[in-house]
Design brief:
single chain; alpha+beta; TATA-Binding Protein; five-stranded antiparallel sheet; 4 helices; 48% helix; 30% strand
């Protein structure tokens, strides 16, 4: 007698367990979309170094040279300085911010031509090469 109800009970069990999944799935999709939008619209790479600004600045120049990226202008900012560079169709902006006399925050953005899209991989590699150069200095 129970054999008739087993498929119905299984379906009922599955259906009742999935009712809570829709909000979770929607939330997860929203978080993923938000992260993707942030990554593509923002595309910046940041790192804080335990080193004074002049040492990080020199390391940035070493990293750019190693990557065959020609540095452009360096300008003073309220918190530190901004270095620009050009690599093919990408414009690169590196901001160095003094956090303390011996701590410098670096933020790198590589934008493709037109500035609408970013190249976070190039920004990350510049940061990685700078980190390596700071470690040698």
């Amino acid at each position: 007698m129970f054999r008739k109800f087993i498929p119905a009970l299984v379906l009922l069990g599955i259906a009742s367990s999935l009712t809570g999944c829709a909000p979770v799935a929607i939330s997860a999709a929203g978080v993923g979309a938000s992260a993707m939008f942030s990554h593509h619209s923002n595309g910046q790479n940041a790192r804080t170094f335990t080193a004074p600004l002049p040492r990080v600045h020199a390391a940035v120049l070493v990293a750019l040279k190693k990557m065959s990226i020609k540095p452009g202008a360096t300008e003073k900012t309220e918190q530190g300085e901004r270095i620009t560079a050009k690599a093919g169709s990408r414009s690169i902006e590196i901001e160095l911010e003094v956090v303390t006399p011996n701590t410098t925050r670096m933020r790198t953005v590589a934008r493709n031509e037109g500035g609408l899209t970013v190249d976070s991989a190039t920004a990350a590699e510049i940061t990685k090469q700078t980190e390596s150069a700071v470690g040698r200095g």
